[in-house]
Model the fold of this input.
Amino acid sequence: MAASAPADAALPRLVWEGRESGWRVVVFSAVRGRHVDLAPGSGDVAAVISALDALAGDLTPCPLISVPTAGEVLAPVLHGWSSMKKQPPQELTPWALDNLERLSSLEKGWTDHADGDTLTHGDVRADQLLIDARERVWLVDWAHPCRGAAWIDAVELVPHLVMAGHTPEVAEKKAAGSARFASAPGSAVDSFAVAAAGYWTRACRQAPPPGPGGVRLRAFQARAADAALAWVRYRFRE
Done:
């Protein structure tokens, strides 16, 4: 992917790829910078939103000839309410339990608006964003690249702004400063918010992967679930 991206796009450059001892090895240029600070009052928030808009412009039309669509990559992952409706976890919040039918009916609707010709990242969060000494924001770790609507990456940022300390209202207003976010129909944003909350809520209840990192992962997912569900309730005005 990196080999096909525009040279001035803010993503790591491919240095070398090959095979060693049966492994495929891919070497990228190092981005010398720090992780962004998404907390209230940080100037990084506006820089990130501007960078996502610029990157979407650089990656439209999609520079990859063969890449799966957002529906193919993200839809099988971004869900959870439908499966939880069959056997609701007792520790779900009362609001989520009362609204399981509504949530499960909404979590797939965003895919109707996901078609597009932008190369999207599909997993935008603070630890995937680096800012260098010149204050340029870089989006790294492209594990789930897909072709889709330009609004996806901007909308995906909202729960992570909530996790960083913003209220859902302020987080959405910040992200809505993105021209890409503004291109999303309201119903698509509603559905994507629900789908993200369903994914995090389902994921954090799985058994942790082996090792100490597994416990940290589930704790992160639980915080993300709370943030995403708070955003859903704000969208529903409840």
